[in-house]
Amino acid sequence: MLETLDHARLREYQWRKVGALLDAIYETPGNAFWRAAWARAGVLARGDVASWDDFQRLPCSTKRDLVEDQATHPPFGTNLTYPLERYVRVHQTSGTTGVPLRWLDTQASWEWWAHCWRFVLAGAGLGPGDRVYFPFSFGLFIGFWAGFEGARALGALAIPGGGADSVARLAAMQALGATALVCTPSYALHLAQTGRECGVDVSALPVRVTVHAGEPGAGIPAVRARIEESWSARAFDHAGMTEMGAYGYECAAQAGLHVNESEFICEVLDPATGAPAREGELVLTNLGRFGSPVIRYRTGDRVRVADAPCACGRTFQRLEDGILGRLDDMLILRGVNVFPSAVEGIVRRFGAVEEFQIEVFRAGELDEARILVEVTDSDGAAVCAALQEALRAGLGLRLPVMLAAPRSLPRFELKARRVVRRPK
Ligand SMILES: [Zn+2]
């Protein structure tokens, strides 16, 4: 059982995969992107990476490296280990943080994606007999395509929810007896709200498990509680990236995210010094996507590694409280570091708040922020005052909270963008 291997056996298992990956990169023609990146750091041949120490001396990679490579070598860049005709799927990132990054997969790496999602869905207690609904527009964004494949690989019934609005999606879930829902945390809340508006009580549907990706939401206790209450189901968090794969998932103990170390190498580094740290930036390597691998990749996610073993018995590394925040999303307000996820954790304690937005603007040389909220069925001014007080107590900052008109703030099917920058 891979998930309970002891550390030494796990490292051996990983090292065999690293070896095979390096062989593929240094074969002819091999992978020009990684060979060039490493050559700049003095790693010139396969034999130069002969130990874990050598591996950890490979330079870290960033999204910017990949984006620049694609801009220089359109449309797919040079991170291709095989000739183009070996690739069977093309996807791209959601583009929430700039130019979308295109990504190609081979038959083998697409199967690998499904394999990784099996861990996610099985960790949430799903299996054959479950009917898993994906309210997702099946377009270029990889998002839940891979989850859909994972449900199929697990032996569950995978139900596509593309090409439909929220009302039609609820009707399909009802008609087909969906037992699980896989979407972003925001969209699960939005579907529940749509249900209230159109007379479908989502808590009465047979959905028993929800699995969430794309935003940190399901790892935020107040957001999780709200989803679980709306759907009367257990909500599970999951982490993945287009360029990396589906790497993190929750178990029944729900004590943070496990990293699937049978398919990924997990390092946590101090973002300033690059030294290993208990809390810092998550740096990942995938071990099953040889056609377009990503190695020692700085994810931009801040995480904290748990010391104690998990009650579930898995030995895979555990990230306490999941993804703590995106390093590039972090706001500095009057000298205080504020992750938008921390604001959301407080906002979501207020049941009357349907949707919210964080407006950031420049005041002199500094950033300032205010919170806009849509409130239903309550005294809006009172909710704003109470939320402002909760934010002050929770963050140590006085942030103005203002009412927005009903249905004026955007809703999101994919990654929610709740932080907007405005001119003053
Ligand atoms: Zn566990």
Could you say which structural class the secondary elements and strand pairing correspond to? alpha/beta
Task: Name the strands of the widest sheet in spatial order.
Answer: 4-3-5-6-7-8-9-13
Number of helices: 11
The amount of helix comes to: 25-40%
**Which cofactor or ligand species appear?**
zinc ion
Sheet bearing the most strands, described?
A: 8 strands, mixed
**Average predicted confidence as pLDDT:** 93
Rounded to an integer, what's the Rg over CA atoms?
Answer: 22 Å
State the end-to-end distance.
Answer: 56 Å
The overall strand count is 20
Q: How is this structure best described in words?
A:
The chain is built from eleven helices and 20 strands. Strand 8 and strand 9 form a beta hairpin. Helix 5 packs across helix 6, helix 8 runs parallel beside helix 9 and helix 10 crosses helix 11. The strands form five sheets. The chain has an eight-stranded mixed β-sheet. Strands 10-11-12-14 form a four-stranded antiparallel β-sheet. By secondary structure, the chain is α/β, with parallel strands linked by helices. The protein is 31% helix and 24% strand. The mean pLDDT is 93. Bound molecules: zinc ion. The site of zinc ion has 7 residues, from loops. The site of zinc ion (ZN) has 7 residues, from loops.
